[in-house]
Specification:
The protein is an alpha+beta fold. The chain has three domains: about 45 residues, no CATH class; about 120 residues, no CATH class; about 100 residues, VSR Endonuclease (Endonuclease, Chain A). The chain is built from twelve helices and ten strands. A hairpin with a 3-residue loop joins strand 8 and strand 9. Helix 4 crosses helix 5. It is elongated and about 85 Å long.
């Protein structure tokens, strides 16, 4: 039978041992769904993946990365890869079955030839291809954050990154040196890139015996923590964070604690704060 989030043809189903009667029964019961001519998916397949197949392609780019838990700054479209020359591409506002809800998300088509077509399913491209498409779809800093996230989660390795950049125009090669899989979150990557632009020395996930790991240490004295609502909203966690800050101060480190929302949606303010802190400390050190 079909794997969840995959899409197959009638011929594939029959070759896997499903009889014609069994296929008809599965369709009638809703266990299988025909989302497009000669394309079948499991009833458990996500609606967004069904939509990608219905259009005539495979889910890719930001849509697939979101599904895999990889950092994406923001995405309001359904990203679909289609092979050039594919005929009868369908808009997402059309439905094969009257029983299927009509998708409302706008679509973004990608035509870049697949790096790993053999690793793609009938419904999704391989993550290597999704990352290549995502670099083209995002501002460089967000693309780097997505790459960091995929590396940190163990979804890709160094060889995979080489394939990602080999698929792209040469101008994107400069981003490769900025990727670092030690980053624990997208906002952490964004702060690291800001500090780098200021000419700072940066250490990631530095460990202190009295404190544990911290997100970033800038110029050997400023600890930057990138807090998310998910892990830092409770009072108990806030008390723990303040105790960490106190212990760091006792070791001679200042702490700048930022929220993910500040980093992503107020980057100019965050950059200004970092610049002023760094310049002030450098000025004091020069006296």
């Amino acid at each position: 039978m079909i794997e969840v989030n995959d899409a197959v043809t009638r011929a594939q189903l029959l070759s896997d041992g499903l009889s014609r009667r069994g296929l008809a029964k599965a369709l009638a019961s809703g266990a299988l769904i025909r989302v497009r001519r000669d394309r079948y998916v499991s009833a458990e397949t996500l609606q967004t993946i069904r939509d990608a197949v219905r259009i005539g392609g495979r889910m890719t780019c930001l849509s697939l990365l979101q599904l895999l838990g990889v950092f994406v700054f923001e995405n309001t479209a359904l990203h679909v890869h289609a092979v050039r020359g594919t005929s009868r591409l369908r808009s997402t506002d059309r439905s094969v079955s009257r029983l299927e809800p009509r998708p409302t998300r706008k679509q973004r088509l990608h035509w870049l030839p697949l790096v790993r077509p053999d690793k793609a399913t009938g419904a999704c491209v391989n993550i290597v291809d999704a990352l290549a498409h995502a670099i083209l779809c995002q501002a460089p800093r967000y693309a780097i954050a997505s790459l960091d996230s995929a590396l940190n989660k163990g979804l890709v390795g160094a060889a995979d990154l080489a394939d990602v950049f080999a698929a792209l125009p040469p101008r994107f090669a400069v981003l490769r040196a900025l990727v670092d899989g030690r980053a624990q979150s997208g906002p952490e990557t964004l702060v690291r890139l800001m500090a780098r632009a200021l000419g700072c020395q940066i250490e990631l996930q530095m460990h202190f015996e009295e404190v544990g790991h911290v997100d970033l240490v800038i110029d050997g004295w400023l600890v930057v923590e990138c807090d998310s609502k998910e892990f830092h909203s409770s009072w108990e966690q806030q008390v723990k964070d303040r105790n960490r800050d106190l212990a760091l101060a006792a070791l001679g480190y200042a702490t700048l604690r930022l929220t993910a929302a500040q980093i992503m949606y107020r980057p100019d303010e965050v950059l200004t704060a970092l610049r002023r802190l760094v310049e002030t400390h450098r000025g004091c050190s020069a006296r």
